[in-house]
Every structure is written in structure tokens, then in C-alpha cells.
Amino acid sequence: MNTPSPLAPFAARVALSAIFIWSGLAKLFAASATQGYIASAGLPAPAIAYWVAIAVEVGGGFMLLAGYRTRAVAPQGCSTLSDDSE
Question: What's the whole-model pTM score?
């Protein structure tokens, strides 16, 4: 039976954390567009939601990269990445 490489979890964490960090930084550099999108979705306090989303994505991305509480961080980071627009 083949056993997975011990580097596989690390490679997966690097790939997933890169997505979160990149997305958070993209929000940071497009502040007005991101806050406008949040407001158009009808969410209250777009400025606060904007900073929370950045903190979750960038902070969570670095936590994933370090391997700290990965099972708790990954689902919450994914919730900020979702786009329900049709």
C-alpha cells in the first residue's frame, strides 16, 4: 500500500494559505470596490466587514502556513472567499 508523503500536508497548507493571503491582499488594495461590493450585498457596516474579511484571510492564511489550528482556520477562511453572485 502506498503511503502519502509527509510533505503532502505541508504542500497543501502552502497552496491553500497562498489563496487566502492573496485574496486578503487584493481586498486591501481595492478598498472602495470591496466595500462597495459588501454594501451592495446588503450587509451592515461595510467598513467593519471589510477589515474583518482582511483579518480573517491574511491572518488565517499565515496561521495555515504555520500549521497552527488548521482545522479551525480553513473553514472560516473559505467562508470569506465565497461569492454568491449569479
Answer: 0.73
- Give how far Cα 59 sits from Cα of 6, 13, 32, Å: 25, 14, 21
Tell me which residue of 17, 15, 10, 2 sits closest to 63, measured CA to CA: 17
Could you report the per-residue pLDDT of 22-55, keeping only the tens digit for each?
A: 989 999 999 999 899 989 988 889 999 999 989 9
Chain centroid to CA 34? 14
Q: Which residue is associated with the grid cell 477589515?
A: 51
- The residues, ordered by sequence, that sit 6+ positions from 39 with a Cβ below 8 Å of its Cβ are 46
| C-alpha separations of 51 from 57, 69, 75 in Å | 10, 22, 18
